[in-house]
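Work through this:
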Amino acid sequence: MKNIDIEIYISNLISFFENNPNDLISLIGDLQKNEFYEKLKQQSEKNFDEGKDIILSREQIVNIVVELKIPDIKNKNIDKIIHKTKFGDIILN
């Protein structure tokens, strides 16, 4: 365990999304939530290692969603996808 604050932060995020499943679905769509949670933790640990705030920014969360969506998009050979989230539209092309 790198840092107890990271564990608490990620645990709180997971609790929020488990208690608000519609928010999770609107954010990540059909992605696997455990993979999403693991990426959140990895980014938070990376922030800690770089001396930054462990709390993820909106941009970092959106980047994680995009990173997880890329293989799905490449497999479908879709020219343009708009993924609507409560944080705004993510356009992948």
